[in-house]
Amino acid sequence: MVSRDVLIQAEGLTKKFDDFVAVDHIDFEVHRGECVGFLGPNGAGKTTTVRMMYCFLPLTSGELKVAGLSVNNHCREIKSLVGVAPQEDNLDPDFTVLDNLLVYARYFDIPKDEALRRAKAQLKFFQLEEKSGTPILTLSTGMKRRLIFARALLNEPQILLLDEPTTGLDPQARHLVWDEVRYLKKQQVTIILTTHYMEEAQALCDRILIVDKGKIIEEGSPAELVKKHVGEEVLEVDFDEKLAVILKEALPGAHIERLGDRMQIFTDQPHGVFEGFLKEHKLQNVTIRNANLEDVFLKLTGRGLREE
């Protein structure tokens, strides 16, 4: 059972870049051993929030504490507790794979022998052993992402900040990362995850914070959010105005969204209601599927494309 100890706490957390408000007076708590996902469109404020947690960006206003320590006054102590896998590739191109880990370990005063042991263990887990002497510039994007994750674990952190950690990974490597996250959760490591992969958030996160335009607009467990906002099932069918009217009459309270030449119908009624409707109305090109976190995300944040 997850301890309820608060490990990260934000009150009125705000970050401005000139006149642009990237993070707008948000409050949240993260408890020890939780995996909390920050989801949002591009530019919503997710990465900015994470960067403030590890003292990469200063706060504009509000308060942010990590392990009871203010990020304004205790950056060195906080950084010793935190592992970070940032979105960007910030590996040192002048060093080999192994040397990137060993040099990083010096920031935490890890003894050389222990640093080497940890580095080799991480390279083995992330299947990079054969690349230990390889220059960084020759690695694929996926290998670099795995190495960044391995580096984040070198100091055996209490808190792990993962900013889109599986972007660019193939399915096998992505599941390798998922396995490591699950293992770390069992060890009571607290994890903050930002991701654009909804199935990743649904699989890993105990709780989700949906962020849009710098504000937290919804939070809850993946299952709670799906049930609250989109129900249990989704009916997808070719768009037809007359059919939409019939659906509204047959399924009071149904939410209908048009996606080009298709419709998606959401209802809070239980499993089986769509099957009953289809027995009375013979339709072509119909799909019934389980509702998911992506449905919630698109309903709350919209379907329009966002630029960074």
Give an account of the 3D structure.
With 308 residues, this protein is of the alpha/beta class. The chain folds into two domains: 6-226, P-loop containing nucleotide triphosphate hydrolases (Rossmann fold); 231-290, Alpha-Beta Plaits. Helix content is 35%, strand content 27%. The chain contains eleven helices and 14 strands. It has helices spanning 46-53, 75-81, 97-106, 112-125, 141-152, 171-186, 198-204, 222-229, 241-250, 273-280, 293-301; strands spanning 6-17, 20-31, 35-39, 61-66, 69-70, 82-85, 159-163, 190-194, 207-212, 215-220, 233-238, 255-259, 262-266, 287-290. The strands form three sheets. A six-stranded mixed sheet has the order 6-7-8-3-9-10, with helices on both faces. It has a four-stranded antiparallel sheet with strand order 2-1-4-5, with helices on one face. A four-stranded antiparallel sheet has the order 12-13-11-14, covered by helices on one side. Helix 3 (97-106) crosses helix 4 and helix 8 (222-229) crosses helix 11 (293-301). The two termini are 38 Å apart. 36% of the residues are buried. The mean pLDDT is 92.
Chart the SSEs and their pairings.
Elements: E1 6-17, E2 20-31, E3 35-39, H1 46-53, E4 61-66, E5 69-70, H2 75-81, E6 82-85, H3 97-106, H4 112-125, H5 141-152, E7 159-163, H6 171-186, E8 190-194, H7 198-204, E9 207-212, E10 215-220, H8 222-229, E11 233-238, H9 241-250, E12 255-259, E13 262-266, H10 273-280, E14 287-290, H11 293-301
